[in-house]
Design brief:
Elements: H1 5-12, H2 14-29, E1 35-37, H3 39-45, E2 54-57, H4 61-71, E3 74-79, E4 84-89, E5 94-99, E6 101-104, E7 113-116, H5 119-124, E8 134-136, E9 145-146, H6 151-157, E10 159-160, H7 167-170, H8 173-185, E11 188-189, H9 191-202, H10 211-223, H11 227-237, H12 239-242, H13 251-268, H14 272-279, H15 285-294, H16 299-319, H17 326-333, H18 338-347, H19 350-363, H20 372-377, H21 384-398, H22 405-418
Helix pairs in contact: 1-2, 8-10, 8-11, 11-13, 13-18, 14-18, 15-16, 17-19
The protein binds adenosine-5'-triphosphate and magnesium ion.
Magnesium ion binds near residues 39 and 52.
């Protein structure tokens, strides 16, 4: 199989295509082999527009990077501890380049120990057949696909297949990856892969991962377009239970949540925190605490989940009442961050949504026009009373009583007289 240059240009975009070609030429000049590899090639075959470019060579990476820096305009070169190098071009496009390497795992779920290897070994260390493809970028095999493990067939038939039995034990983040690819691409697992995943989860391998690694995988999954499908897989497989959430998530609940959430995506981005609220929706306090700890959530994020757990029912009930005043709405919602408000809008009835809209459009940024100095002029002594008066003014404004500064001053005067 060979992908035509015209097709490649279209998938990669003119700029990336040009640079990939240049790197191929530089390798050629050094008599190094050079390929695009892994997810990059998978996505190319699926015709997904590219942003992630992974390049591999059997040649010496240091000399290659030196030569690339001489010929292309790079802004930075970043080396990672796992033998990959990120080159960042002056216009911020970036490629990952690595020398072929193999990995070994001293114990289950450990980080890999990396050493140089042949191309064959580099392919064998990968997670699924769909991620093992290579595409030549040197002149003689530009666009040619090298498929040693029948990855093309699995891409075409939509199958996620592991390379070996210890796959998930060596690196349990691959369980998250498997669900991510399944959800993203609507693929299915081959029988053995499914069994290995079930088994790895059952023996508690997830608990061996560090919170940082779990966090990374969870947040990557929540950024996906079909995040709800992936979360459902996490729930059904028992993976969520391993990170603290006991109850299963219902397909209907998460699907309808996702549908409504889409309305906000343009304004609010990925909304990972809102999505965490649906994941932890029926969880007890203790479960949320365990979840937060296993997923390495930050203190602020944990507090957000716990606060929302405590308050959401009360807020939703209060807002669904017709007679609630703007002042009450304001103080009810004031401390809720926007990710929480979106959750409430989605969960609430028509009345509730109307109230939150009123809050966002009219109440949220309302402030008293008078300041401390005005109170001073009116003869109040500086102190805690200032805060109380300003709050009274704000409350009156929220309920529509005061508009101009003059009216506010008048209101405070009347208050003085009543003291
Ligand atoms: P995505 O589209 O989400 O970026 P990807 O498959 O490209 O998915 P990357 O994390 O970008 O994933 O990694 C690039 C390639 O490196 C993969 O396609 C795979 O071949 C290999 N790889 C990455 N992570 C692992 C892992 N945990 N175990 C084995 N191979 C991996
Ligand atoms: Mg990638």
């Amino acid at each position: 199989m060979r992908i035509k240059k015209t097709v490649l240009k279209k998938i990669l975009g003119e700029e990336i295509f040009k640079r990939v070609k240049s790197i191929g030429e530089i390798c050629e000049g050094m008599s190094y082999s050079c390929y695009l590899i892994g997810g990059t090639v998978r996505d190319m075959i699926l015709k997904v527009p590219q942003i992630d470019i992974d390049i591999v060579t059997e040649g010496d990476i240091t000399s290659l990077i030196t030569n690339i820096s001489k010929k292309l305009r790079l802004k930075r070169v970043l080396r990672s501890q796992f033998g990959t190098t990120k080159i960042i071009f002056e216009d911020n496009l970036s490629f990952d380049i690595a020398q072929t390497r193999k990995e070994s795992y001293p114990y289950p779920a450990s980080l890999p120990v990396v050493e140089k290897s042949t191309l064959g070994e580099d392919i064998k260390r990968r997670d699924f057949t769909i991620n093992t493809l290579l595409m030549g970028i040197t002149k003689k095999d530009f666009g040619k696909i090298f498929d040693y493990l029948e990855g093309i067939n699995d891409i075409e038939t939509g199958i996620i297949r592991v390379l070996h039995n210890k796959n998930f034990i060596d690196d349990p983040t691959r369980i998250f990856r498997a669900f991510r690819f399944k959800g993203r691409l609507s693929f299915r697992f081959d029988r053995k892969t499914k069994k290995l995943i079930d088994n790895a989860i059952k023996i508690g391998i997830i608990k061996k991962l560090t919170p940082q690694r779990i966090r990374r995988e969870i947040f990557l999954s929540l950024k996906e377009k079909r995040w709800h499908k992936i979360v459902l897989e996490f729930s059904r497989s028992g993976l969520l239970r391993e990170i603290g959430i006991k109850n299963k998530i219902a397909r209907r609940t998460i699907n309808s949540f996702e549908k409504k959430l889409r309305d906000f995506i343009d304004i609010k981005g990925n909304m990972e925190l809102t999505k965490l609220l649906i994941i932890t929706e029926n969880a007890k306090k203790k479960e949320i605490e365990t979840f937060s700890q296993r997923v390495g959530l930050k203190k602020k994020e944990t507090l957000f989940l716990l606060e929302m757990r405590n308050k959401k029912r009360w807020i939703l009930t209060s807002l669904s009442k017709k007679e609630i005043s703007p002042k009450e709405i304001y103080w009810l919602l004031k401390l809720i961050p926007s990710d929480g408000l979106i959750y409430l809008i989605i969960k609430g009835d028509t009345q509730t949504r109307k109230k939150i809209k009123l809050y966002l459009d009219n109440l949220k940024d309302m402030k008293a026009k008078i300041k401390g100095e005005d109170l001073k002029k009116l003869g109040f002594k500086e102190g805690p009373l200032y805060k109380k008066i300003l709050k009274m003014v704000l409350d009156e404004k929220l309920n529509g009583g005061l508009t101009t500064k003059k009216e506010e001053i008048e209101f405070v005067r009347r208050f003085m007289l009543s003291l």
